[in-house]
Amino acid sequence: QVQLVESGGGLVQTGGSLRLSCAASGRTFSRYVMGWFRQAPGKERQFVAAISATGYTTYYANSVKGRFSISRDNAKNTVYLQMNSLKPEDTAAYYCAADSSRRTIGGTDRREYDYWGQGTQVTVSS
After folding, report:
1. Are the CB atoms for 70 and 19 separated by under 8 Å?
2. Which of 16, 32, 34, 116 is 20 to 30 A from residue 110's alpha carbon, by CA?
3. 122: which residues sit within 8 A by CB, 6+ positions away?
4. Contact at 8 Å (CB) between 19 and 8?
5. pLDDT one-digit tens code per residue, 56-101
6. Residues forming beta bridges with residue 10, ordered by sequence position
7. For 66-80, b where at least 16 C-beta lie within 10 A, e where not — what string?
C-alpha cells in the first residue's frame, strides 16, 4: 500500500511559479513510476508529467513542456513538480500518482496509475 500526500498548491499570478511536492509512504517508492495529473472543474483528469523510478527519464504533456519540471528524491520518498510561467489555464487540482507496476514510463493514461493523492489546488489569476 502506498499513501501519497501533495502540498505546495496556492494562488499565484500569471507568470509566477509554484513548486508542488508529493510525499509517499512505504519503502518501495524508488521502484515506481510517478506522475502528476490535473483536473479543472467540469473537465477530465489529464496527464501533466511523469518520471521513471530512477529519475533518469521524464515525460511531459505538450501544454506544459518547457514550463514545468518533474523531479524526485528517492531518499526522501518525494516527487516534485516545479511550475514556472504559470497561466490561467493551468488552474486545476493537481494530483500525484504512482504506477506500482512499472519502473519505466508507460504512457499518459491515468488508468495505469494505481495510487493517488488527495490533490492540491493551484489557482492562477490573470
Report:
1. no
2. 16
3. 9, 10, 12, 18, 20, 38, 83, 86, 90, 91, 92, 93, 94
4. yes
5. 999 999 999 999 999 999 999 999 999 999 999 999 999 999 999 8
6. 122
7. eebbbebebeebbbb
